[in-house]
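Here comes just one.
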Amino acid sequence: MQIRRAGFCRRSGRLSTALLIGTLTLTSVQVCAQAILEGERFHPAVARQGMVATSHTLATTVALEVLKNGGNAVDAAVTAGFALAVTQPRSGNIGGGGFMLIAPGDGSDPEAIDYRETAPAAATEAMFQDQEGNVVKDRSRFTHLAAGVPGTVAGLALALERHGTISLEQALIPAIRLAQDGFIVPQRFTDGLEQARERLTRWPATLETFYKKDGSAWKPGERFRQPELAETLRRIVDDGVKGFYEGKTAELIADEMERHGGLITLDDLKNYTPQVRKPVHGNYRGYDIYSMSPPSSGGTHIVQILNILEGYPIGESGHNSAKTIHLMAEAMKLAYADRSEYLGDTDYVDVPLKGLTSKVYADKLRSRINPDKATPASKIKPGQPAPYESNETTHFSVVDQWGNAVSNTYTINFSYGSGITVKGAGFLLNNEMDDFSAKPGVPNTYGLIGGAANKVEPGKRMLSSMSPTIVRKDGKNVLVTGSPGGSRIITTTLQVIMNVIDHGMNIQTSVSSPRIHHQWLPDEIRIEQGISPDTIQLLESRGHKVVTNSAMGAIQSIMVGEDGTLYGGADPRRSTSSAMGF
């Protein structure tokens, strides 16, 4: 499927980079004017011409400058993606992969770009098991075997090639400057390096790249520079995608693998190809929901859960009431059970996508829900959709002056991925191989159960929960959203959609409100602080185990009003999050 280029407006001449290449610091950022909404506790950023919401103020700033200078949403999104690879190395990346959803403002069909990592050609189904068939702890997480072939550079470049108006060089200039000249470290940057110290400092290249010469972490207010990463990005400017997947950078990756028993080879890198896919599509109370298709499970199960919940008057039940949370949790359990059985890379396995997203199948699942009592997870088995066939990640959302929208989620899996920095290249490798089923039926780090559909195979894309999502009403983009959070990505994104459609919240309230999560196994509702003790007691009386969790997700969202006004909601769960417009 190909989106018509007419859907993305172009400006003649080159995009000015004058405002993009200046040295950027957190103190230089101008905050967008906030809406004055009387009676609201949370206020979104408000603009008319363009809006960017990312998890880091500097990335938001450079992407917004692209929009101000006539670039479109894809131009700004790609610029933000490369900037986050510099300013937020724990999740922003060039050593990982992700998914981008693009919805033209003219109402033509949305398009999904799949730049998920792939298993190396030498990967085997039992590579994370010992001779007795037991899963070896941490082999798929903190070793060179954990890394899949990175897709970010190829994916962002493909998006720009298909729909952009600026060059790859222009998109990279702000990131290169941030890497070369450095940026002022915020508290979250320091805290992350301190928390991950034991895991990161075992690798000399990571210690050298992300810590001071004396081994201490960079402190808030200090300037952090990444000269090796700047050179890696310059090679992409000089040689395009080949500047990463061939030549010196590729050789540095392959050498890193060879030194430490990893599997990625020069051929693996050279052969990597992102894919253009058709998004998953559903309809919820008259709104069209577009989200990522497999190898992401996100779109499939967001639509599936919404289909189940559409049969209940959620708005009347009230936001985060015991009744609403009960129904949401029961629907989530049913969807995650199906995820364990059916989801995988559709280039390798048949996924009953049409059945899973069928409203008739949702009716059958809904009939299994007791409105007054929790169903034990042990009694929930994956359904039969076939008859109905006919934690650390980052997300950013962009809408431009022509109404074009981009929703992008990308990741290196864990915070700081594998913890392994490619010597001489200055970037971290992902540990996405842990998202495969190391052994069918054995949970991964996020507690998610996987089946044979997600077993390790050479060249295969591992299953993901990333859920970049765009909602339309009468053919117009009205909500752009997505989140990090591992297994909680699906439920985080789901709840923002419901907060807007069912509960009529503004986008900042939708983003900031307390969340809940249930993933079938373990059999518990996880809640954020802010759910009342009375509600918890009512849930427990229905048979639910309730566990209070720290913050779940960090969703970055944009709403478009009926008159075209743009409302940005940055998630306060990440202190560096920022929504800005003009």
